[in-house]
C-alpha cells in the first residue's frame, strides 16, 4: 500500500503513461476482438479500465469527474483513449488536492471490505496491470502493434536488429 502521496504520484504517472500507450494503440476495428465468444472484448476491457479510475477511488470519498457513458464500451477507440487520459489526470489531481499522507491510512468501505485508502490506490494500479496484460494479448490477436511496457516486444527486437527470443 502507499504511505505517501508522493509515492503514489510517481507510481501513477509511470503506470498510467504505460496504460495510455496501450489505449492509444487501439483502433476502432480492433475493439471487438474477444477473449472468447461472449467474453469481454478489447474495447470493453479498455473502457472498464477507463471507468474504474473513477469507480474504485470514488468509494473512498474522493471527488472528481466521472466519465460520461454507460457500462457498455463506446465504439470509438479515440473516445476510450481520451476517456482514460482525462480520468487518470483527474484522479491524480484529486488525490494531490484532497489528501495528505495521513489520509492514506484512513479506512473506507470497498466492496464490503475495509481497505486503507493507500491500499485502494495500490489495488487500482494492480487491477490496471492485470487487465493491461489481457489487452496486449488481444491487441496481438487483432494484429495491432503492441507497445513494449516492461521490455521490448517482438517487433522492437527486430527493429533494433536483434534476434527475437521465442
Ligand atoms: Ni476488472
Task: Give your account of this protein's structure.
52% of the residues lie in helices and 5% in strands. The protein is mostly helical. It has one domain: Up-down Bundle (Four Helix Bundle (Hemerythrin (Met), subunit A)). It is globular. The model has no long low-confidence stretch (mean pLDDT 96). The structure holds nickel (II) ion. The site of nickel (II) ion has 3 residues, from helix 4.
What features would you highlight for this structure?
single chain; 166 residues; mainly alpha; Four Helix Bundle (Hemerythrin (Met), subunit A); two-stranded antiparallel sheet; 5 helices; 2 strands; binds nickel (II) ion
Global mean pLDDT: 96
Distance between the termini: 35 Å
H/E element sequence:
HHHEEHH
Arrangement of strands in the largest sheet: 1-2
| Helix count, DSSP H or I runs of 4 or more residues | 5
Evaluate the radius of gyration. 17 Å
Give the name of the CATH architecture.
Up-down Bundle
CATH uppermost class: Mainly Alpha
Amino acid at each position: 500500500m502507499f504511505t505517501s502521496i508522493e509515492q503514489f504520484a510517481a507510481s501513477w504517472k509511470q503506470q498510467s503513461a504505460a496504460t495510455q500507450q496501450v489505449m492509444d494503440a487501439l483502433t476502432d476495428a480492433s475493439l471487438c476482438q474477444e477473449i472468447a465468444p461472449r467474453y469481454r472484448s478489447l474495447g470493453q476491457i479498455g473502457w472498464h479500465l477507463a471507468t474504474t479510475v473513477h469507480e474504485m477511488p470514488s468509494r473512498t470519498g474522493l471527488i472528481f469527474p466521472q466519465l460520461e457513458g454507460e457500462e457498455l464500451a463506446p465504439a470509438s477507440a479515440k473516445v476510450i483513449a481520451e476517456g482514460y487520459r482525462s480520468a487518470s489526470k483527474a484522479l491524480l489531481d484529486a488525490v494531490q488536492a484532497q489528501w495528505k499522507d495521513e489520509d492514506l491510512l484512513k479506512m473506507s468501505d470497498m466492496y464490503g471490505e475495509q481497505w486503507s485508502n493507500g491500499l485502494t490506490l495500490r489495488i487500482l494500479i494492480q487491477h490496471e496491470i492485470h487487465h493491461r496484460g489481457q489487452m496486449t494479448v488481444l491487441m496481438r490477436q487483432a494484429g495491432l502493434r503492441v507497445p513494449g511496457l516492461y521490455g521490448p516486444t517482438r517487433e522492437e527486437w527486430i527493429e533494433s536488429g536483434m534476434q527475437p527470443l521465442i
